[in-house]
Please model this.
Amino acid sequence: MSTDGKKLWDNIKESELYGNIRQLFDWMKFSVEAIKGFPQVLRYPGETFKQLYILGNQALPLIVFATMFVSMVLSLEWGKKLEPFGAKPMLGRIVGISVLREIGPMLTGLMMAGRTGAKMVAEIGNMVLSNQIDALRAFGTDPMKRLIAPRVFAVFIVMTPLTIIADIAGILAGWATAIFLSGADPEFFWLSMRGGLFFKDLFVGIIKPPFFGLYIGLVSTYFGYTITGGAEGMGRAATQTVMFASIGILVLDFLLTLFILALY
Model:
């Protein structure tokens, strides 16, 4: 390679774009290794069930709280909009479809991306910075199978039940708001929702959470596992985790919705 060509290549390697592309491929390689470690989670049932409990139990109040209030705002707004047209009985259908298809899965994903993502990157990152990961390797234990796979698997599994609980809480909150604040008929609310929901709506709402959970787990553990730079690096990794996880949830939501609608 000529001197000019070598200089150009050095400039490309030092560019931010090259660093981002390389980081993307590193994450993809990391993700493959983490997913390949899923069968090994049964070797560490204590760690796996601990993560299932922590990630699910501690995140539940935040997810339910957020879903309820967004659903209440939705019910209140649409109740006022539908009233002049005499279409208030349709409020149950609007709340049901919105919560099951979008609000429940989306808010669960975003809340988990912010809370659980930051928690896992801090936890794994602290182990890296304190040389605990190196200690595991010294004792012949693979950190990917012992630490990473159980956490990613736990987020993957726990997202669906969290979303179902969020859906129930959101629909009940929307119902209460429609009845007590918008003056809707309680019987028509449930009849409207039952008549407007189809299997496709339930399928859309249930198929998204596992993908969201898998993505959140892979992003947060990657940034924690590859952390450098001490306390400053910890803050940078946490920020990147929340940012990329949240943006990724929005993109995944669009792509999954597009794919599912194409099937039907």
Residues 175 and 189 are 7 Å apart (CA to CA). The first helix runs from residue 3 to 14. The mean pLDDT is 85.
